[in-house]
Specification:
396 residues, 13 strands, alpha+beta
């Protein structure tokens, strides 16, 4: 019997220097014998979103369509929330509900998701969940770099043929690149938008710098009201204005891979569930292809839905934020709170808020790449990202 070339490869030892070097997002691919494909598969060695979109969705983005620049290939977008939320979920539990339904109905035999270690609620522990209980043990985002793909060998060796993978953009790009090597009959991909992950040490610095009680934070999110919402163990919600962040202390806390990423919206997932394009309190859902529609149809009757909306104008705010971030400007807290209130009332909402967030991060990341890795700039920045960044005047 012929042995696949990747099975002859050896995973890199933990802590060893990865092929992407400091740009490694620790997606987990290099922890397996699929490291054989890393030069082609790694999002930071070979950016190939357009090519993989065509394979996954039947087409790549239409560069004449601004919505495609921002949100990727889509069949349908909506705002949604569960009628009966899952207790303890970060939002209402749409992602967990879809995963549980797929297991219970026998559509998949396993779900790749991320639980946490027994010692640390923020330390990610990728698993292949075989039961709804194991899926629910993974609820709540882990805001740290997570090696989701380190279970790839286990998938192949276990004989699983129908699989759901939940992950973020860099993980999903690598997964799509090796999808045909996994021996699966059917792969479902449920993505979440992702921006500005950190190492575990970086997360601690962020919490210590920003929260009133870092040791009791259960989860947090940068929300549409321009505040960071920290949920604490006692159920209380602490809100910190974006504009009050100690940018000068936190500029270097985000992972270099995240500072060089242009796939905020998880372009290659079949279905994406996030929050940034929806009104406050709702989730933003993007169906990218027929597989994504099949997944969403499983839970539609459990959801309240509404059409996506867009309000306000982001461009002046984005342009002003570029030099402010670049110079590490931090406002006094009273001014930050006042600005947050004003922007919440008159600033971008819905899809315009999503565009604001994408513009802010893409301009920042483009500058980071141009300064730190100029040799990678042309190949690494996708065409849609160049169009987005091209709307703004950037400092040298």
């Amino acid at each position: 019997m012929t042995v696949s070339p990747h099975k002859k490869a050896k995973a890199l030892k933990p802590g060893s220097r990865r092929p992407a070097k400091e740009l490694c997002s620790e997606c987990g691919l290099c922890d397996t014998y699929y490291v054989h494909y890393v030069k082609e598969a790694c999002a930071f060695l070979n950016q190939q979103i357009a090519e993989l979109e065509t394979v996954a969705h039947g087409r790549s983005r239409d560069l004449e369509n601004e919505d495609d620049w921002y949100f990727g290939v889509s069949q349908e977008m909506m705002a949604a929330r569960k009628q009966t939320p899952i207790e303890g979920a970060q939002w209402t539990g749409i992602v967990s509900t879809i995963a549980c339904e797929m297991l219970e109905r026998g559509l998949v035999e396993g779900v790749v998701c991320v639980q946490n270690t027994a010692e640390d609620r923020f330390q990610p522990m990728p698993v292949i969940a075989r039961t709804p209980e194991e899926v629910l043990a993974a609820k709540v985002n882990k805001p740290t770099l997570s090696p989701n793909l380190n279970v790839l060998e286990e998938i192949e060796q276990s004989g699983l043929k129908r699989l759901l993978v939940i992950g973020v953009g860099c993980q999903i790009q690598a997964l799509r690149a090796v999808e045909q090597e996994l021996g699966l009959e059917k792969l479902y991909v449920l993505g979440t938008p992702c921006v500005d992950n950190v190492s575990r040490e970086g997360l601690q610095k962020f919490l210590d710098t920003t929260s009133r009680s870092p040791e009791t934070v259960v989860h947090y999110e940068f929300m549409q009201d321009f505040r960071i919402h920290f949920k604490h163990e006692d159920g209380s919600i602490e809100k910190v204005p974006f504009f009050g962040l100690k940018t000068n202390e936190l500029k270097d806390v985000f992972a270099p891979s995240c500072m060089s990423c242009f796939d905020y919206v998880n372009s290659l997932a079949d279905l994406v569930v996030g929050y940034m394009g929806a009104p406050f309190g709702w989730q933003w859902i993007v169906v990218r292809n027929d597989t994504g529609k099949e997944m969403l149809d499983l839970v539609r009757d459990q959801l309240d839905t509404q059409e996506v909306m867009s309000k306000g104008d982001r461009k002046a705010a984005v342009q002003q934020s570029i030099p402010a971030y670049d110079k590490g400007v931090t406002l006094p807290m009273w001014a930050a709170k006042m600005m947050g209130v004003v922007i919440e009332r008159i600033g971008p909402q819905g899809l315009e808020y999503a565009r604001f967030s994408i513009d802010s991060h893409f301009t920042r990341n483009y500058l980071h790449l141009k300064r730190k890795y100029p040799q990678k700039l042309e190949q690494h920045v996708p065409e849609y990202a160049k169009k987005i960044v091209g709307q703004y005047k950037l400092p040298e």
